[in-house]
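Input chain follows. Return structure tokens only.
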Amino acid sequence: MESISPAQHAALLQSPAATPPPGVESNLINPPNQRAVSIFVILFLGILTSLALTIRLYTRVVLLHRMKLVDYSLLLSWASFIAYLISAWLAGSIAPLVDQWNLRNQDYITLLFYFYLAHALYGISMLFIKLSLLLNILELFTPLHQKTTLYKACHLIIWTNSTFYLLFIILQLFSCHPVSKSWDILIPHGVCLNTEVIDLVAGAINTTSDLIIFTLPQIRIWGLQMNLRKKLAVSGLFSLGLLACAASILRLIHSIWVLVSANKSYYEYFCVLWMMGEMGFGIMVGCFPLLPRFVRHVRETIFALKRRGVLDGGDVRVGGKGDVAGEQDMEILLVSVGKDRG
């Protein structure tokens, strides 16, 4: 693009960001949008992930009195996820699933800036989410650090994923020279990598690693010498990972649409929502292994308070066959895996 005058630049900023399809007119005043859906998804995932992390940290700090590397990793993934939600909220305040020809260039440029931030924050959050998931698998299934095939596979995936996401973050942040050309489509000079192709390739790699990480604990769980009820209970703690995998696949599909369609603002915001789901469900899966311990603490506390109200004294601990089904499954799992060296 050749240099343009300030007046021409101002006129371009007010022009539609894309040519509408035949028979369609641009609606720059009040275009159709899905702002309510965007707000609901952001608040829903933000509240659930914050609650899940609070429960995990309470269990670690108050009940177990010890933080581990996996907890710090989850905390960092959640912090970058919240920053991502803020970027998505700001993007949603401009164009939540709005067709590109219904946007002025100045709004589209702002939208691209928030997409730019969101993609970088996604890479940071996913790096720590997958690190925490793999550390959870190592803690639960190789508690004595046996050099099993699972142990070696987890370490290989940790280093491979970390390298991949660091490279992804760098490419996202510095894909253009100057950097501002990543979002300002009216800059007449500079050069950019094809970030749409990068996103598509990264999405395919990311989906593959999601499926592998989900499968690893399931194979181990169903190979343990445990009854079906306990296997189902423990497997259920990781089953939310299926939703993260589904979100990752849908994000990959919409990345293809971003690549081939001229309506990029619409399909890119879909990608933002699916990435949001992948991160949110991933964080919750990472928090869930300590959930049985927290539930047991709550029930013991409630039971003890009820007993004190009647008998006026003494600590009371729940035990025996009256325990809620599944509340000690994680402790049983740790013992079972420690004995199972297959």
